[in-house]
Amino acid sequence: MLYWFFVKTLGPVARRRFHPVVEGAENIPKQGGAIIASNHLAVIDDALLPLSSPRMIHFMGKAEYFNGKGIKGRFKKWWFTSVGVFPVDRSGGSKALGALETARHVLEAGNIFGIHPEGTRSPDGRLFRGHTGVARLAYETGAPIIPTAIIGSRELQRPGTVIPGKGNTKVVFGKAIQVPKTPSENVTREQLRQLTDRMMQDIRALSGQEYVDMYAQVLKNSQKKG
């Protein structure tokens, strides 16, 4: 696993460029599974979180990263696997559920799983409605949810920008939401939505973002049609 090699070798370069300030790292448990649920403003968010966490974070990645052909395709698969990323098919249905099953195994093995409950980057900098997959994982595993806010990354990397600029960022890990392990058949949709909404409001309080009670992807789709 090359995760810590890249964090240690590339981390100093990234820190000089993004100047991340970390708050609340003590809220990440020193051992056992936990879910880091963060807002999502820019591509560099998934670099800022590992740089800020004292423990390795496992992420989901687009299935296309793992399915490429030739030398480039094999390199991508090796790279993402080496740094703790596992594939998710974003077409939905049973394929997406397979990724959640992998996430469950990550948590049950006592590891940290990182996810953006909005499901995609914010199209305008606001915080959007969370999907209930995080809540479902928390109930199934009993893993606490760590609401997390990334601040300043959008200013360094606007949508469509490949190379981020230099500037200041902040990562704030909030107090854990403790969730009792509960058989999936005993968890109602209402419970999933209530826990998800509580998590999103905690993220909003940490990030200072305006909250929008709609899915980010819905707004993105409407912008494309317009």
Based on secondary structure, the structural category is: alpha/beta
- How do the SSEs run, as a string of H and E? HEEHEHEHEEHEHEHEH
Strand content: 15-25%
What share of the residues lie within helices? 40-55%
The total count of helices amounts to 8
Broad shape? globular
Task: Report the count of strand segments.
Answer: 9
Rg is 17 Å
Mean pLDDT across the residues is: 89
Give the biggest beta sheet. Answer: 7 strands, mixed
**Widest sheet: strand order?**
1-8-7-2-5-3-4
Query: What ranges have pLDDT less than 50 throughout 5 or more consecutive residues?
Result: none
What's the end-to-end separation, in Å? 44 Å
Tell me what you see in this structure.
This protein is of the alpha/beta class. The protein has eight helices and nine strands. The chain has helices at residues 3-18, 45-52, 70-82, 93-108, 133-141, 153-156, 189-207, 216-225, and strands at residues 20-23, 34-38, 57-62, 85-88, 112-115, 127-128, 145-151, 169-173, 211-212. The longest helix has 19 residues, at 189-207. The chain is globular. The mean pLDDT is 89.
Layout of strands and helices, then pairs:
Layout: H1 3-18, E1 20-23, E2 34-38, H2 45-52, E3 57-62, H3 70-82, E4 85-88, H4 93-108, E5 112-115, E6 127-128, H5 133-141, E7 145-151, H6 153-156, E8 169-173, H7 189-207, E9 211-212, H8 216-225
Parallel strand pairs: 1-8, 2-5, 2-7, 3-4, 3-5, 6-9
Antiparallel strand pairs: 7-8
